[in-house]
Amino acid sequence: MDPRDTAPDSWEQEDDVEATIDGQLDSALLSLNVNAKPFVPNVNAAEFVPTFTGNAHSESEDSVVAVEKISTMEASESAAPVENGDSELTTEEPWDQIEAEPNEKEPGGGPRGDREPSMAATTEETAPEMMEEEEETPAPKVPATQPDAPKKEHINVVFIGHVDAGKSTIGGQIMYLTGMVDKRTLEKYEREAKEKNRETWYLSWALDTNQEERDKGKTVEVGRAYFETDKKHFTILDAPGHKSFVPNMIGGASQADLAVLVISARKGEFETGFEKGGQTREHAMLAKTAGVKHLIVLVNKMDDPTVNWSLERYEECKEKLVPFLKKVGFNPKKDIYFMPCSGLTGANLKEPTDMCSWYSGLPFISHLDSLPNFKRSSDGPVRLPIVDKYKDMGTVILGKLESGCIFKAQQLVMMPNRHVVELLSLLSDDVETDDAQPGENLKLRLKGIEEEEILPGFILCNAENLCHSGRTFDAQIVIIEHKSIICPGYNAVLHIHTCIEEVQITALICLVDKKTGDKSKTRPRFVKQDQVCIARLRTAGTICLETFKDFPQMGRFTLRDEGKTIAIGKVLKLVAERD
User: Fold this and answer.
1) Are the C-beta atoms of 344 and 166 separated by less than 8 Å?
2) Segment 335-349, tens digit of pLDDT
3) 3-class DSSP assignment, residue 121
4) DSSP tag of 552
5) Which has the closest alpha carbon to 40: 64, 62, 17, 69?
6) Angstrom distance (rounded) from CA 233 to CA 180
7) pLDDT, tens digit, 9 for 90 and up, residues 96-144
8) Which segments carry the region annotation Disordered (predicted)?
9) Residue 416: phi, psi to the nearest 5?
10) Which span out of 164-168, 263-267, 272-276 was modeled with the highest average pLDDT?
């Protein structure tokens, strides 16, 4: 029997064993002895494996290795019995602690204990766990160049258009082409989609993570993802196309710098989306009202058998859309760019396609990269409208920083309830950062306020320059679509930045001539479709808002009623509350 396997009768006896081992050590091994002492805990952690798995045989083998390592270490340091005893005792202490730790904490031990057994355990045990984790979080991969992400210009792109035009599919395809979703995940989605006889939907599942959205093939909430090009960092906001979810779409469009209007070139589908009740018209108008200046029109499904990359069909869609977009307020020469593509095959999204020889422009991603930089004032007052909030180790809010700069540990004020809050951490597109510039989509963890005390539409401001809040304001309104007349006392739903509130038109002040801009001398008794008026509005609760002249992002609004957008407007004057 090896003398090292038995307990020594005395320390001298153990010294003899060590002396023989010491003689066998070569000089190369002796040079490692400096690092040997900090390495002791790792030896103990490895030795803990058998108690976790309950394997008695491996325990004895591991103990041999451990004793051998400890003894070689001690021998190299000194042969004196007292020191030897000391070092033995010190190695004994963490052993006891490690034995006790798994019982005190959750089963499986600490992080080190966790790691070792998982290596020793069979792959059959770990594989299902990994699969479960993947299914729970189908979040996009974090790109390798994340530390530099905030330094690149940050642009928020909202995908809008009629239901089933292919917005989520194009978003998923872009994420795949830019490496945000790996091939294996997409193959998994494809298998699952095939099982449900929905094989063409698998790309949209990268953004439609909700089970209900996947089953019905309709986006409900605004999907979020991000990708990077050489020069810029983009956040994708995938807006729902269905008319029932237009309020969600308005919330997404209010965060965007750039809108991508997706239209389907397939026979019948374009016409449905563009008719009076279709969402192509409404979404384009809402995007303009939300402050989107630049619009890219993606003519999707060009690979469809009914279209087959036909220039005639592309031009037909273009001819019908341009007059309408012009009427909404986009300049066809400067603000609008048309582009054919196929979301399902990825043609003309990243690389040009041979199928479309008549299109000479850049593919979609390259075109986004070549856009001029947006002018943003970082020295303005802090304004961050809140889109969403939830609890996660504290209060977390989501929103886009409209102006000003914020940084970690800064004291800010939540309006309109005037709570003073502190920023504990900032995440820009799921990457932690110390400060943020205007235009970034942020997740902020706050201290000093409960999640229940926040509502979407509240605004984070700096204490030196608070935003205005109130209930009564004067605004210029354009009536877009309404069957009957609108009189004082009319109620609607107001969408202003990320806030949704009930509103009443309390008085009509004057009519405005569309061509000359002249105001009528007398008060109108009513307004009807296509008229412009100045009216006094009063909301049901206190909201945060600014005049359009001072802060355009917080001075534009839409009025909706019975599921339709009836009017768009801008805030001209805030009226002080009477006591």
Assistant:
1) yes
2) 899 999 988 888 888
3) coil
4) G
5) 69
6) 12
7) 443 444 444 444 444 444 444 343 334 444 444 444 444 444 444 444 4
8) 74-150
9) -90, 0
10) 263-267
pLDDT band, very low/low/confident/very high, at 532 (cuts 50, 70, 90)? very high
Enter the DSSP assignment of 227.
E
At 499, the pLDDT band (50, 70, 90 cuts) reads very high
Tokens at 369, concatenated: 């990269």
Cβ-based neighbours of 398, under 8 Å, separated by 6 or more: 386, 387, 388, 389, 441, 442, 443, 444
Q: How far apart are CA 519 and CA 515, in angstroms?
A: 11
Tokens at residue 172, please?
């998923």
Q: DSSP of 388-446, one letter per residue?
A: EEEESSSEEEEEE--BS-EETT-EEEEETTTEEEEEEEEEETTEEESEE-TT-EEEEEE
* Tokens read off for 344: 């399902």
Q: Angle at Cα 282 formed by Cα 280 and Cα 284, nearest 5°? A: 70
Which residues is 496 bridged to in the sheet?
499, 557
Long-range contacts of 50-54 (CB under 8 A, 24+ apart): 51/99, 52/102, 52/108, 52/109, 52/113, 52/117, 53/117, 53/120, 53/121
CA angle 515-519-525, nearest 5°?
110
- Measured distance CA(178)–CA(326) in Å, rounded: 33
- DSSP notation for 469-505: EEEEEEEEEEE-S-SS-B-TTEEEEEEETTEEEEEEE
Output the CA–CA distances (angstroms, integers) from residue 84 to 11, 33, 101, 276, 369, in the order listed. Answer: 8, 15, 27, 90, 67
Residue 233 near residue 223, CB atoms below 8 Å: no
Contact 203, 186 (CB under 8 A): yes
Find out whether 85 and 11 touch, Cβ atoms under 8 Å.
Answer: yes
